[in-house]
Write a structure and sequence with these properties.
CATH architecture of one domain: Sandwich
CATH topology of one domain: Immunoglobulin-like
Number of helices: 3
Number of strands: 7
Shape: elongated
Structural class: alpha+beta
Length: 137
């Protein structure tokens, strides 16, 4: 047979001497969370949209406050990589994302525009990747 013994820990002696200790910890954790969130702001907030039509893949990324010179777009084989940095005071916020493209694209015909904080890419599909109508005899 087992006996259950209830055990209540008494408050630490320091809790009686410093009633604001818990409050101080809560405020410290609140500010630490706020600072951590702003450090990763660009990484978490960048919406990227990818869609396709018959001839192209279209990618758009919202990068408000980023200078055109701080945006990098790379296409290697069937992987598209986007990266950007934004300087905010003494801090630099960074964003990086890679996509495996579902079809082969014509790398030499890819176009990119950046206007009003929105990066837009048009990636023309390679001839073999476009759907063809096949006649049935």
């Amino acid at each position: 047979m087992y006996h259950v013994i209830r055990y209540n820990q008494p408050l630490a002696a320091s809790a009686h001497r410093a009633p604001w200790t818990g409050f101080d910890r809560a405020i410290d954790s609140l500010f630490a969370a706020a600072l951590a969130d702003s450090a990763t702001e660009l990484t978490r907030v960048v919406p990227v949209s990818v869609h396709e039509d018959q001839d192209n893949l279209h990618v758009s990324a919202e990068l408000p406050g980023v200078d055109r010179a701080d945006i990098k777009v790379e296409l290697l084989d069937d992987t598209l990589s986007l990266s950007a940095t934004r300087k905010q005071g003494e801090r630099t916020l960074a964003f990086e994302r890679s996509f495996s493209l579902p079809v082969t694209v014509q790398a030499d015909k890819v176009t990119a525009t950046y206007e009003n904080g929105v990066l837009r890419l048009a990636l023309p599909k390679a001839q073999a990747a476009k759907p063809r109508q096949i006649a049935i005899s």
